[in-house]
Amino acid sequence: MSSLRNAVKRKTHKERSQPAARRQYGLLEKKKDYKERADDFHRKEDALRRLRRKAEERNPDEFYFAMEKARTREGVHAKSSVEANKYSQEELRLMKTQDANYVTLKAQAEAKKVERLRGALHFIGAPVQARHTVFVDSEAEAAAFAPEAFFDTPTELLGRTFNRPRRAQLEDAAAVSGMPTGDGGAVPAARLERRRAASYKELLQRQQRQAKLGGLAMRMTLQKQLMGKGTKRKLKPHEQEGSAPNLFTSVLKGLAVAAIAVGLVLGAASPALAARSGGRVGGSSFSSATSYGGGASSFGGSSRSYGGSSLGSGYSGSRSAPALSGGSSINFGWGMVPFGGYGYGGFGGYGYGAPVVASGGGVGFGEILVLGVLAVIAFQVISSLTNAGSESFGGEKVAVAKLQVAMLGSARSLQRQLDCLADRANTSTPAGLHFVLQEAVLALLRNPEYAVYGSSKVRKENGLDSGEDAFNEVSLQERGKFKEETLVNVGGRSRSNRMSRGGGDGMQELIVVTLLVAVQGKLQLPRITSREELVTALNRLGAVREDQLMAMEVLWTPQDESDSYTRDELFLDYPDLNTL
């Protein structure tokens, strides 16, 4: 019987499917699956209910281990956060700086959008200029070109840049529900009014957002400055920007600046006020521009001969003992030759001699008159020689420019580019100096997003000698901010060495790059307060011609890879930098 029962065909079991109304919930859930999910849900509900009841019935004065570090704020228990002590003071200040830079960047982007909206508000509803370009093979095709046939769409839909259906799609009414009405595809006045109102509303919202971002950036910058070292004090009314200057304060500032300048000249930079390692590359072409004959600056070297005439003895260019000669009396005095004394020689140069014979104990009126005439002639000769030399070789204008940029420490590629430039540059020729200047400018232009501080200054000098003195002075001031110059390539002479002391113990926050340029002629740089002005100043430096470039140097710190440069050191070494 059992075998016969197995041979009988049985009814096929079918699983019930999900009803059509509940198809969006997926496959039909079986009872055992539903029971398991429901039990889990009820377990969680019961646990939450027990915890809620336990919290309501808990005695707030009962001791528990968390009470040792718990604090109350206005009667409410507040848990102490461990994340507050996770970062050091320098890391927190760096993060606040990055946040402030991000907020400033967003505020600038919002300002550009506001200006764009202001310029387009009055053109709402105006015909849009066509921007779709269609290329044809001949002028005949261009004259017979029909946009409706080319795009396969009605005339009233040609002005659309998107959602422009073809004629085959226009059979569906939903596709043309947003098609404009009116003759020639003109937008109705009501729709224009709504669009204009929406644009004005967007403009107001963006202006408010720009104001909020600007205020937030100011507050974040203030918090970052308050986190710095040293005590802070509130500025007095006469110390605030835009107030009338105080005479006493101005005098004190002048004395302080003079004291600092004397300290920089007479003393070396202290470890607290000097960067750790620095690189320097560049050179000068002033010597080749000022090489001229010595005849204009020397007074007749051929006149160095002893004279034995009856008027006296002496020689030009050096001193000689007065000659003694016979007579009733001999007087010695300081005066112009031939009357004796130290003065201007007849053949050029300086010398002194003694009179041959004097008839009395003094000098007469005629001698005084001749003495005055000779003094005037000597003064005119010396003045003419000095003026001729200055007009020939010192009358040209020289501009000495200094541009400084502080980059974020993440711009390590810029540091490596400057190191490579210092290794392979030829700084002994004007062409090599011009190449170094352009490469340094390009390296800064390719990394504008890392720039956070900047400044520029231009000094105008009359004459190549004054320009060279000013350039050397600025170069020495900037080099004095380094403890060591670990990579140098100046004037064809190069050297490289590691730091004699250990690297910085702080984190790498900033890289400071200084460009010193002396240009023959005029050079104007903007006051750098934004990244746009920084790019403008760099472009002007990069546009300097090779025949204009007199001298240039690129200095950067830190140069050593194991070295670091913090924000506190930046504020001490470079107080004139502006926030970008």
TrEMBL record:
Chain residue ranges for the region called Disordered: 1-31
UniProt GO cellular component terms: small-subunit processome
InterPro entries on file: DUF1517, FLAP_modulator, SSU_processome_Utp11
Single Gene Ontology BP annotation: rRNA processing
Record-linked Pfam families: DUF1517 (PF07466), Utp11 (PF03998)
Protein name, entry field: U3 small nucleolar RNA-associated protein 11
Organism from which the protein derives: Elliptochloris bilobata
Taxonomic lineage: Eukaryota, Viridiplantae, Chlorophyta, core chlorophytes, Trebouxiophyceae
